[in-house]
Amino acid sequence: MTLSTATTDFVAAQRVNRRNTFLLLAILTLLAASLGYLIGWLLSFDDAAPRGWSNGGVIGAGLMAAASIGWSLVSLAISDKMVLGMASAKDIDKADAPQLFNVVEEMSIAAGIPMPRVMVLETDALNAFATGASVQRGTIVVTRGLLDTLSRDELQGVVAHEMAHIANLDTRYMVMVGVTVGLIALVCDMALRTLNWGGSAHNRSSSGDKKNSGGAAILIIILLVIGILAPLAAKAVQFAVSRQREYLADATSVQFTRNPNGLISALAKLAEKAAPFPGVSHATQHLFIVNPVQDFTKDTPALLATHPDIEDRIARLRNLGG
Amino acid sequence: MSFWIVIGVIAAIGFWLVAVYNGLVGARNQGQTAWSQIDVQLKRRHDLIPNLVQVVKDAMGYEQETLTKVIQARNAAVAASGNPAQAGPAEAALSVATRGLLGLVENYPQLKANENVMQLQEELTTTENKIAFARQFYNDSVNTYNTRRQSFPAVLAAASLGFGPMDLFTMPETEREVPKVALR
């Protein structure tokens, strides 16, 4: 079997993810600044200059922009520790699982990246995930059940999938997407509250103001609709991005192992035994190789799924020559 | 006015040369790093094989010929190491010999159950895999590098900047498959 996939594939994926991460950060900052301006403007009473920038608004924009950049950077720095802590992953010695360490090392060689940290989750469920804010600081976590059940080839396929998330910089990008979605939800919530409170404050303080109250009402209605719909849309986008990343990681996995059959039979086993386990929740579900929370016997609406259908993933892998 | 145009053109060519140079250096370094990774794994295999032969020697008294072949292939590979073009065939021959030995081990139940042998089998399997994956990464890197230095317009400058072509690390097609050792 020969696959004419070149190394440049995931180098290109890395570049796209780098750019998108930066783009998200920029959008986020802009969004936060706009909201900060709105809040600052509504809370301040310097309406003396109807044209031009409101001082309170500018201060609010600056504060919110700084806060969103700060929050993003902190999230990127500590997200892996938080996730590993939440899932209660444990370090293991090479002597306890020599084969796992060997397979991880093989895949890090295939990907041409440094050997990631290796950890286990003490549960019978079959699953795995990866974290890492950079290619140099990756961590691959597998469950004990996975270690005990899968054959060497299957384990290799799963590890290659996780290695692909690290090499593609998906791990970092998904953190940034998560922060964005969280911030949009928070911002909309705050905006809705501010509209209530700030709106009435303005009505009290500037009843005789020349401010066009009809225009303001329309603006407030538009903001209300945006405030309610935006978080939902953001969530849907996050899931779509997550599904896309899973397909790409499957393909990159085969590019590393040159053996689609390992991952195919691993996915088939995982579909049956990816039961929920302690320490996993909706906050971390998108990280795993197969969704540990979702019930695979039922059809989940595609829009709300963090992962593509396993059968669909297997079908795509078969197209790669499995 | 025309003076500034000349200066501008010279500066543009200068920047372009720097970009070409840096790009080629990056690609070549990746290739060289990849080669050193293969080299590490090949050496590891050269070290592991005598251990395996040592452990199975007594039990496999009737297979002296195979054992001798493995050791000979290993010594030939050690002698050829360091150069991608020569090491390829020697390492391919060693892969065949090793696979033959591992296959024979399957016929000896007392060996298969031996803790030492099992450990050596896993180590040899992972080393074979690492060689294959390192070779894959090395060849991909070399291809990227060679394509880059042959592409227009870099091809105009590559040779005069001292960027020669790099050799692929090829093992004969029949040896492409990694020896499969059933461990479970």
List keywords for this structure.
heterodimer, A: 322 residues, mainly alpha, Zincin-like, 2 domains, four-stranded mixed sheet, 9 helices, 65% helix, 5% strand, elongated, B: 184 residues, de novo design (two linked rop proteins), rod-shaped
Describe this structure in words.
The complex is a heterodimer of chains A (322) and B (184). Chain A is mostly helical and 322 residues long. Chain A has two domains: 8-85 and 171-205 and 212-221, no CATH class; 92-170 and 242-319, Metalloproteases ("zincins"), catalytic domain (Zincin-like), CATH 3.30.2010.10. Chain A is 65% helix and 5% strand. Chain A has helices at 8-43, 55-86, 98-111, 144-149, 152-167, 170-205, 213-257, 260-273, 310-319; strands at 90-91, 117-121, 128-131, 139-143. In chain A, helix 3 (98-111) crosses helix 5 and helix 6 (170-205) packs antiparallel against helix 7 (213-257). The longest helix of chain A has 45 residues, at 213-257. Chain A is elongated. Chain A starts with 7 loop residues before the first helix and ends with a helix. Chain B has 184 residues and is an all-alpha fold. Chain B has one domain: Up-down Bundle (de novo design (two linked rop proteins)). Helix content of chain B is 76%, strand content 0%. Chain B contains six helices and no strands. Chain B has helices at 2-56, 64-80, 84-105, 109-112, 115-150, 154-158. Chain B is rod-shaped. Chain B starts with a helix and ends in a 26-residue tail after the last helix. The model of chain B has no long low-confidence stretch (mean pLDDT 82). Chain A binds chain B through residues 6-8, 98-99, 102-103, 105-107, 109-112, 151-152, 156, 256, 258, and chain B through 30, 33-34, 37, 41, 119, 122-123, 125-126, 129-130, 133-134, 136-137, 140-141, 143-144, 183-184.
